[in-house]
Design goal:
The protein has one domain. It is 10% helix and 47% strand. It is mainly β and 90 residues long. The longest helix has 9 residues. The protein has 1 helix and 7 strands. The termini are far apart. The strands form 2 sheets. It has a 4-stranded antiparallel beta sheet with strand order 1-6-3-4. Strands 5-2-7 form a 3-stranded antiparallel beta sheet, with no helix packed on it.
């Protein structure tokens, strides 16, 4: 499975902005759901297929979060930049 992966510890009220060079799946997952994603098990996430760029995702609570970007099994590559808007927890 090919995917781009970024991780952050985010404070309450922070969000993540993802800029893409093409349409891709963008998911924001907590630790448990990221582990399930990697194993191919059932998982829940915030986000989905990004039809436009940039996309902004906001976690429902502070904590450790993973941004995963993939093409859903289709061939090719995607370039992305990810930045935190708001605050990073210390």
């Amino acid at each position: 499975m090919n995917f781009l992966h970024y991780e952050f510890t985010l404070s309450s009220g922070a969000s993540v902005e993802v800029t893409l060079d093409k349409r891709a799946n963008v998911r924001l997952l907590d630790d448990t759901n990221f582990s399930n994603y990697q194993r191919g098990a059932q998982y829940t996430y915030i986000g989905g297929q990004a039809l436009k760029s940039p996309i902004v995702l906001q976690p429902p609570h502070s904590g450790h979060w993973h941004v995963v970007i993939d093409l859903g099994g289709f061939p090719g590559t995607v370039r992305a930049s990810v930045r935190v808007l708001g605050g990073v927890a210390s």
